[in-house]
Design a protein that fits this description.
136 residues, mainly beta, four-stranded mixed beta sheet, four-stranded antiparallel beta sheet
Length: 136
């Protein structure tokens, strides 16, 4: 690799600290201990701090994560594992993949969608506590 002054350096040195984008054949999620923020790879790539995590709920194929100013909707299969690990702040990253990459995974994430919460009141509640409106 060439620098502006014309000196060449080894690729290894130039890439120190580089973290590649997750491979599509990797797991739909990655766990770690003492996670301070979760990385989401879906329609957009973003990170949300666990200090702003408010609540989570799920049904068979949808997991909804509520943060102070954001809501993340994850669709897929076997999402209970994510539900439990998000509540324990152990999810480092979650990645949505096309169906062809499912390969019989117990947990498969089909899509991740983020939306900004509007008019968040001081107590951090809203009219739509859950997808069904019953607060569970």
């Amino acid at each position: 690799m060439l620098l502006k002054d014309g000196k060449s350096i080894a690729i290894k040195e130039a890439c120190r600290g580089l973290i590649p984008y997750p491979a599509l054949d990797s797991s739909s999620f990655e766990l770690s201990e003492h996670v301070t923020s979760a990385l989401f790879y879906g329609e957009e790539t973003f990170a949300l701090s666990n200090s702003y995590f408010v609540s989570a709920w799920m049904d068979k194929d949808t997991l909804v994560l509520r943060y102070a100013h954001d809501e993340v909707r994850i669709e897929g299969q076997g999402l209970h594992t994510l539900f439990v690990n998000f509540s324990q702040f152990r999810i480092l990253k979650v990645m949505a993949k096309a169906e062809r990459y499912q390969k019989g995974e117990a947990v498969f994430v089909r899509s991740i969608k983020r939306r900004k919460r509007k008019n968040v009141p001081a107590n951090n509640s809203s009219e739509d506590e859950s997808p069904e409106g019953n607060g569970t």
